[in-house]
Amino acid sequence: MPYYNKPCQEGLFQHFKALNDAVDLPLVIYNIPGRSAVDMTVDTMSRCFRELKNVIGVKDATGNIARVPRQRLAMGTDFIQLSGEDQTALGFNAHGGVGCISVTANVAPKLVSDFQNLCLAGDFTAALDIQDKLTDLHHALFVEPNPGPVKYALSLLGICSAETRLPMVPVSDNTREQVRTAMIRAGVLSRK
């Protein structure tokens, strides 16, 4: 969704139509009302999918699991539904989603990959075991605005620095402790 302007549903459709008409690439709608201040309705999303040849799916960061079956019924199983929220990915997948564009995968890629593969195989019981292991990490990575906690976690793994650019600032000591503890609980960082 476009940020700041808060377009109406017709404006959202016209935005994706302009993108669709300008490129010959697959388009995935990123529905994130928490950041864009506007939610694309299921009807508008369905219109985009029906009328715009390049629209293939959605990264749904609404946190509303009830939308998944509504979107599946409106657009069919060819419409790719990806969760945009790690914490709700299990329920999202159980309702017909086919994956997650994950923040936590930056920190715990193997666990998140195993989790998604179990979901795709329909083994939601085993996926729940991994979800439980990752729950604190999912939460800790959003205690402060993204990407601060993620960059701090990656710095603990030696992947990058925790440095951010303004207007983002370094995460607090409390957040650092929550992230570190959650990484240890998930098994991606050893106690030191």
Outline:
The protein has helices at residues 9-22, 33-36, 42-51, 67-75, 89-94, 109-120, 124-140, 148-156, 173-186; strands at 27-31, 55-60, 80-83.
Key features?
single chain, 192 residues, 8% strand, globular
Overview of this protein structure:
Helix content is 49%, strand content 8%. It contains 9 helices and 3 strands, in the order αβααβαβααααα. With 192 residues, the chain is mainly alpha-helical. It is globular, with a radius of gyration of 18 Å.
Q: Strand order of the main beta sheet, please?
A: 1-2-3
Radius of gyration: 18 Å
Low-confidence stretches: none
Which quaternary structure do these chains form? single chain
> Which word captures the global form?
globular
Give the distance, in angstroms, between the N- and C-terminal Cα atoms.
42 Å
In percent, how helical is the residue content?
Answer: 40-55%
Q: Which structural class do you get from the secondary structure elements?
A: mainly alpha
Fraction of residues in β-strands:
5-15%
- The count of β-strands is 3
Query: Describe the biggest sheet?
Result: 3 strands, parallel
Overall average residue pLDDT:
95
| Number of helical regions | 9
Strand and helix order: HEHHEHEHHHHH
